[in-house]
From TrEMBL:
<protein>
    <recommendedName>
        <fullName>DUF4159 domain-containing protein</fullName>
    </recommendedName>
</protein>
<dbReference type="Pfam" id="PF13709">
    <property type="entry name" value="DUF4159"/>
</dbReference>
<dbReference type="InterPro" id="IPR025297">
    <property type="entry name" value="DUF4159"/>
</dbReference>
<feature type="signal peptide">
    <location>
        <begin position="1"/>
        <end position="22"/>
    </location>
</feature>
<keyword id="KW-0732">Signal</keyword>
<feature type="domain" description="DUF4159">
    <location>
        <begin position="27"/>
        <end position="217"/>
    </location>
</feature>
Length: 219
């Protein structure tokens, strides 16, 4: 489990003379069944990777990879992003594969792009039937990496007046799933022209995204 993460850290931060060349690792976008638009926000992950490379010194390839929930290719990605507005369905085999990936050192960020919440909670219960999502306190380390968010998850887009909330699933005291609700981090990562967000809003979204990447690679 820890060897998986060690190899990722060496590749990402280039800390030794024998490290692989820059930009050998990619962030992953999770493709799932059920009809939800898993492909939403196509410019989000390239922008997040570039921001992490500038701000954290990582060596991520901006060309993210698309990976299916049940695929063995999932293990090629140190950090996987999931988004959408609608239905999410995992088969039993897919849920088992995702669980093995997460308990083996992987990390999943789920970003509710508004509308997927009731479905993703059911899907996650298949993956971790023995536990549930819990709202993370504002002092959780995920909010206090390179960038500090003393009030927790930043609000990027407004939908129905609800506050932004960050939930998590912990496995053996390690945060393996971070679920952002009523925030729309991914929208804030997109090209500025897509949503016309202010520089301050985009900065907050990208900084929180960088925290998620940094936290995942340090665990």
């Amino acid at each position: 489990m820890r060897m998986f993460l060690l190899l990722l850290l060496v590749s990402l931060f280039g800390s030794s003379a024998t490290s692989p060349p820059a930009e050998t690792l990619r962030l992953g976008l999770l493709k799932y069944n059920g009809g939800g638009d898993w492909y939403a926000n196509p410019t989000a992950l390239p922008n997040l990777a570039r921001f992490c490379n500038r701000a954290l010194g990582t060596q991520l390839d901006p060309d993210y990879g698309t990976v299916e929930v049940g695929s063995a290719e999932l293990y090629n990605y140190p950090w996987v992003h999931m988004t959408g507005h609608g239905n999410v369905v995992f088969s039993a085999a897919e849920a088992e594969n995702l669980r093995n990936y997460l308990t083996g050192g992987g990390f999943l960020h789920i970003d509710d792009n508004y509308g997927m919440d009731p479905y993703v909670r059911v899907a996650l219960e298949q993956v971790f039937p023995e536990t549930r999502l819990v709202e993370l306190p504002f002092d959780h380390p995920v909010y206090h990496q390179t960038y500090g968010f003393k009030n927790g998850l930043p609000k990027i887009h407004e939908h129905d007046g609800d506050p932004a909330q960050g939930y998590g699933i912990l496995w053996q005291d390690r945060l393996v799933v971070f679920y952002s609700v009523s925030s729309d981090l991914g929208d804030g990562w997109e090209d500025q022209a897509v949503h016309n967000d202010t520089p301050e809003i985009r900065a907050a979204a990208l900084q929180m995204g960088a925290n998620l990447v940094e936290y995942a690679f340090q665990q």
